Amino acid sequence: MSLRKLFNFHGGVKPAYNKEASIQLPIAAAPLPPELVIPLHQSIGGTPRPLVSAGEHVRKGQLIGAPDGYVSSAVHASTSGTVKAVELRLMPHTSGLSAFCVVIEPDGKDEWGDLAPVPWRSMNSDEVRGALRDAGVVGLGGAVFPSYLKANAGKQGHLNTLVINGAECEPYITCDDMQMREQGEIVVRGAAILRDLTKARQVLIGIENNKPEAIAAMQAAIKATGETNIEAVTIPTRYPAGGAKQLIRVLTGIEVPHGTRSTDYGVQCFNTGTAYAIYEALELGRPLISRIVTVAGNVETARNYEVRFGTPMRDVIALSKAKPDTDRIIMGGPMMGYRMPSDSVPVVKATNCILVGSPALFPPPPPEMPCIRCGECARACPTDLQPFEMYWFSRARLFEKAEAYHLADCIECGCCAFVCPARIPLVDYFRFAKSEVWARETEKDAADQARQRYEFRLEREERDKQEKAARLAAKAAETKAKLAQAGSGDAALIAAAAARTQEAEGKSNAE
Amino acid sequence: MIAALLVALLVMALGAVILGATLGYAAVKFRVEGDPLVEKIDSILPQTQCGQCGFPGCKGYAEAVARGEAEINCCPPGGEEGIRKLADLLGREFKPFSDGFNIEKPKSTAIIDEQTCIGCTLCIQACPVDAIVGAAKQMHTIIAGQCTGCELCLPPCPVNCIAMVPITENVVTWKWKYPAFSIGKAA
Ligand code: SF4
Ligand code: SF4
Ligand code: SF4
Ligand code: SF4
Questions:
Q1: Do B175 and A432 touch (CB under 8 A)?
Q2: Is A504 a residue whose pLDDT tops 60?
Q3: Does the predicted TM-score (pTM) go above 0.95?
Q4: How far apart are CA A377 and CA A418, in angstroms?
Q5: For ligand 2, is residue A414 a contact (CB within 6 Å)?
């Protein structure tokens, strides 16, 4: 349909997509659970401060966690009810660690607090960004980076291209597909807001050609809304076309080099779900309190649900009925997802998919063999890295050398491990090496700070010593001058002054 | 002929004098602050400022190592990795910790029991990195993010109300494990 010239990104793979099962039924609203567990830390960056305490009544959309620091995003109550506790609860995180969550017992009324649309057209960009931050809008494609940090026009004062990411390349996941089909107009309106905020010359909505209904729906939505400079573009299906840098490459031909940002090239990328959330936040004044979640894999009826944040995953899975041989829950897809420590962990802003697994569906990988340096991984890597070199150094814990091969640019897409004939779990090595590098950097920063504070203290002590010496010298001089003034007359006076001086000196020595 | 030679020699000599003077001047004018080797060693040391090495702080130890007066295995907080890095930098042989020196402790921060504290300010005077705040006769508190875990504030406290608490992992500081012991791939 589109005559636009498209480009290829390097590498990529074609895994089995397994998306049919979850697109048979429309999106359903997940019911209110008996208890909502809302983690305060849900986005990249800081942990919001809790604003409520046990016993307090909250309304739907009420701010319960205030952003702390520059990279952080607010958290809201996803229904009305009573705060039962603010306590440590198991997080939807592979580590199996806990973090502070606001536990809410719903009152069943699901009553919104006062909502007011944000007059964003008459606000300056800082005010709009503040509004997005307070509405808790973060990237819903899975990276959960606070959106307000991205929603600006950049140094040039305008973007050339705003990319809306509807590629959804990861197997099993269909939440963006279904949202574009059912709520396409709002996604387009959200994209139009982003277009105006970033002063983008054109908006390209990239959708893989395995989603013809979504493409048709978006084209119809663009027509229906009458928005200009927005185009839905069909792109070839190849994993990971939905990676930000890969999609930008496909749509604009721009190759964003290692260690640089797409904004340097006048391009910025947002997920379709994020565009939807931005419309809701600004036009309706509704903070982000729910999202669409795909439940798929080892279940009777795979389907998409609109789920309030804080809903335990098991309550959502129950709607789709997990099969009896279920042995694992994965948040995200089979390529980039994370294994959950339990099915009791809550749905959060990052939960695009709950993938239910079984040994039959995901058999244990065959044992790892030595790398034969065949180079398949490098041919498959969409970021043009050399995974076998990074693997070698990560394995040997030579992290600096792994970094020299641009370890930090690895997007953990799993293409390399997917093609590796030796079945090496390459991504596991990269995640390990990355977290070691990161820990070292944090340690180094702390050490530098400690060094500065120590040196500052030494300086201060030195200065104090000198000041004290100067004070004493001044005093001694004064006394001498007084002595001289007293003249030769009264011998008793002189003796008394001398005694005082001696006393003072004695004191200063003791000090 | 000889005149030409003399002129050439003179020009060269003059050049040498001018260059020498410039170099000498530059050496004085643009002198690098501090000894670069000391700085390099200091950048490897963990900056705990605990004094276990027998010097008042990491900088003092760095200077002693640079002068060749101290061994490279005297800094317990740096661990074996620290020794290895020093060995690499200085081209010396790796040397394990001597007995009694290698007590590897989990990284900790100090915490004051604020109910017991009598506000004597002795710990403030002991803290090498000014991580303790408080005033005379007032409760004292340790800024956790700035405490290096040196333990120097423990002995001066007259009421023993400072304790070392190991830093626990959280969701942000958690590290992926080496794959051999990993939880396996997600799918
Ligand atoms: S694909 Fe596997 S075996 Fe081949 S070079 Fe890469 S890591 Fe080695
Ligand atoms: S996981 Fe990293 S190294 Fe492997 S293909 Fe993807 S980007 Fe390249
Ligand atoms: S022992 Fe303590 S003071 Fe000495 S170098 Fe190591 S950290 Fe610094
Ligand atoms: S030394 Fe102990 S009692 Fe004194 S101020 Fe410090 S913590 Fe309080």
A1: yes
A2: no
A3: no
A4: 8
A5: yes
